[in-house]
Amino acid sequence: MTSIGTGYDLSVSTYSPDGRVFQVEYAQKAVDNSGTAIGLRVKGGVVLAVEKIKHSRLLVPHSNRRIMTAGKYIGVASAGWMSDTRHLVKRVRDEARSYNDVYKTKIPASIIAERLGMYVQAYTLYSSVRPFGVSTLLACMDRNGPQLYMVEPSGQYVGYRGCAVGKGKQVAKTEIEKLNFDNMSVREAVKEAARIIYTAHDDTKDKLFELELSWVCEESNGLHEHVPQDLYDEAVQYAERSLDEDEDEDNEMEDDEDL
Amino acid sequence: MFRNQYDNDASTWSPQGRIFQVEYASEAVKQGSAVVGVRSKDHVVLVAAKRSPNELASYQKKIIRIDDHMGIAVAGLTSDARVLSNYLRTEAIRSKMVYGRSLPVGRAVSAIGDKAQTNTQEYGRRPYGVGLLVIGHDDTGPHLYEFNPSGIVSEYYAYSIGARSQSARTYLERNFANFEELTLKELITQGLRALRDTLQQGKQLDTLNTSIGFVGKDTKMTILDGEATQEYLDLLDEEESAAMETE
Amino acid sequence: MDPIELRLPHTLQRPQATSNHEPITHSTEPIVTGTSVVAFKYKDGIMMAADCLGSYGRMAMFRNERRLMAVGKTTLLGMSGDISDYQHMQHTLENIMTQEYDMDDGQRLGTKSIYKCISKIMYNRRSKMNPLWNSYVIAGVDSGEKVLGYVDLIGTTYESPTIATGYGSHMAQPILRKVVEGREDEITEEEAVKIIEDCMRVLYYRDARAFNKLTRAKVTAQGVEITEPYSLETNWDFAESIVGYGA
């Protein structure tokens, strides 16, 4: 970033001469520094997975959730500043409720994504505020089936079949692109999501982490919830096994090279 | 610490995706004397080292009662903590009024976390310059949470914040796995043991500078100061001499 | 030509304004109404029943109204009075339960909390001189304890082993006093069904706003079960023997 220090990057209400808003890009940086979050949309539902990096062994396991629920059936996973995330989750909850108050139906995914996008965008307009340091994944089932959206700090929102944000997004994206979304059950997607998070995790940088897995699907009655414990354990086993296999393969290849 | 262009207010991101004003606010927490929180399966305890501005002054209060089931310990700007504790008390009483139940501890902490978050996003405000350890007992058992100026809240088995708190955390990390089954007395002793590690060379825990707070199953939030702490300081000494003998 | 005059049912006639300086009024009467709710404690929990009629004044307008509902999994709610106000309450409760679900922290709103919350809503509305025109019966098993409470449009609350609202407080309450009170822990489910059906039958015979299509529900430690609408066996032979009253 060559424009650092030129003074065009101090306020979100200032463009640089080449038409960029640096403060938004810097907020994106906060997202890139965070643990990986991914979403997979398959035929029967949507799966969210997060690599929750733990900075201390004293933390209580399964507390301090990074995947949260809004209006019972919307899953919100995020990468970035945790306190900003809570702010946005509150907003999603308020939007879901106000829609239900007016129309007495659950809010469609495209609308919740649009409304959240608008809200986030408003924080890129005024010098009195800073943009949110969060990318938010929204998962839910509506009348058009399973839906997955991502809202970025700029306010841009896009629908996805599979997406990844955070530290390990490059690795995760490569893995996601290999998946066969059309022929995958939700349960399989849960296992793949676990594997991708384990693959994207960088052991040398962050030692402790916890996997969070949630879903919205028919099995959960359209509600957003953490996956059942037995499936969670199965997914973790699967992830660890595939990591070991990868290592073995690597070793074999090295052996081949030796020959 | 060097001044840079990005550290003037909380509404500016640095090119690395940091908010310096929030980081500086976290430094204010480290200026305060240390507090330690520990938890067993039935109880949760706070211990704090109090300071006095001069010999003629009283010691600064470190532990504040919120409700029968909840209390906080403060490190950093005490006046900011009072704003937050006032808010917590209001929320606690509201929960009792509307639902007839004690405010769940996690929700209480999230509420002040959300409040703190707005101070990190708007121009012309400063983040709270205080860290809190929040303890409480609700339907899901005893809890210990940390609150910091960024608005992030985390739940711990044992934790410490404030000046030289790293020493206490080191002790806790080594020992927290054994806290689960401890009695209240043993738990308090463990807390004091960790707190002692944060003291400056030559300083001692005594009845004047020690504050103890606890809450648990069938135990209302209680704060002990002055002579009431002697009993526990004695226990700490006993443990000490016992350890020496075995050596 | 004379204008056509529409006459609403007598319950809908608004009091004539006598001057321009009348105080502001909100609801002064219910519009579409449901009649009695009957409920009492028995061995395993609480039994409750209400019929399916929504009356518009004296007209039997809607004949498939459900006036019993579950709030969460362990609380049962029965309603007498204005049906649109009830729908408003349903919506409010739905929002509260959604909030609880979203928290995802293992805390649960028990029957006592829900009872308290509904009571506060009712009292709050009456204090604004704009009451929700209902009587509610709230039932559940909260931490092993049977809870059965009442709250009405004025915000009056009471708990009792037997509760009947509206016309039922005249016609069913004496029956419940006689057969239930003092035996709350002995009555089997089978007997409870018989008692509540007897009450509903009497109400159907005597209450001109009652209807022979009802739903019955029980709430136990296992949760809430509400039946589909059904009818009771009736016998009108006694009608032959009634003499007088204009017959």
Automatic annotation (TrEMBL), chain A:
The keyword Heme belongs to this UniProt entry's keyword annotation: no
Keyword tags: Cytoplasm, Hydrolase, Nucleus, Proteasome
GO terms assigned for molecular function: hydrolase activity
Biased composition regions of type Acidic residues, renumbered to the chain: 243-259
Keyword Hydrolase: yes
Pfam family, one: Proteasome_A_N
GO cellular component, one term: proteasome complex
First-listed, main subcellular location of the protein, grouped into a coarse class: cytoplasm
SMART domains found in the cross-reference section: Proteasome_A_N
Domain called Proteasome alpha-type subunits: residue spans: 8-30
Subcellular location: Cytoplasm; Nucleus
Segments for region (Disordered): 235-259
PANTHER family according to UniProt: PROTEASOME SUBUNIT ALPHA/BETA
Family affiliation: Belongs to the peptidase T1A family.
Subunit structure of this chain's protein: The 26S proteasome consists of a 20S proteasome core and two 19S regulatory subunits.
Record protein name field: Proteasome subunit alpha type
UniProt organism field: Coemansia umbellata
From TrEMBL, chain B:
Localization annotation: Cytoplasm; Nucleus
A GO biological-process term: ubiquitin-dependent protein catabolic process
Protein family according to the UniProt entry: Belongs to the peptidase T1A family.
GO MF terms held by the record: hydrolase activity
Source organism: Coemansia spiralis
Assigned keywords, A-Z: Cytoplasm, Hydrolase, Nucleus, Proteasome
Superkingdom to which the source organism belongs: Eukaryota
GO terms for cellular component: cytoplasm; nucleus; proteasome core complex, alpha-subunit complex
Subunit composition and interactions: The 26S proteasome consists of a 20S proteasome core and two 19S regulatory subunits.
Protein name (Swiss-Prot/TrEMBL): Proteasome subunit alpha type
Record-linked Pfam families: Proteasome, Proteasome_A_N
CDD domains tied to this protein: proteasome_alpha_type_1
Gene name tied to this protein: PRE5
InterPro entries: Ntn_hydrolases_N, Proteasome_alpha, Proteasome_alpha-type, Proteasome_alpha1, Proteasome_asu_N, Proteasome_sua/b
Residue ranges of domain Proteasome alpha-type subunits in the record: 6-28
Automatic annotation (TrEMBL), chain C:
Ranges in coiled-coil conformation: none
Subcellular locations according to the entry: Cytoplasm; Nucleus
Family matches, as InterPro entries: Ntn_hydrolases_N, Proteasome_beta4, Proteasome_bsu_CS, Proteasome_sua/b, Proteasome_suB-type
GO biological-process terms attached to the record: proteolysis involved in protein catabolic process
Biased composition (Polar residues): 13-27
Cellular component terms per the entry's GO annotation: cytoplasm; nucleus; proteasome core complex, beta-subunit complex
PANTHER family: METALLOPROTEASE TLDD, PROTEASOME SUBUNIT BETA
Official protein name in the record: Proteasome subunit beta
Gene, per the UniProt record: PRE4
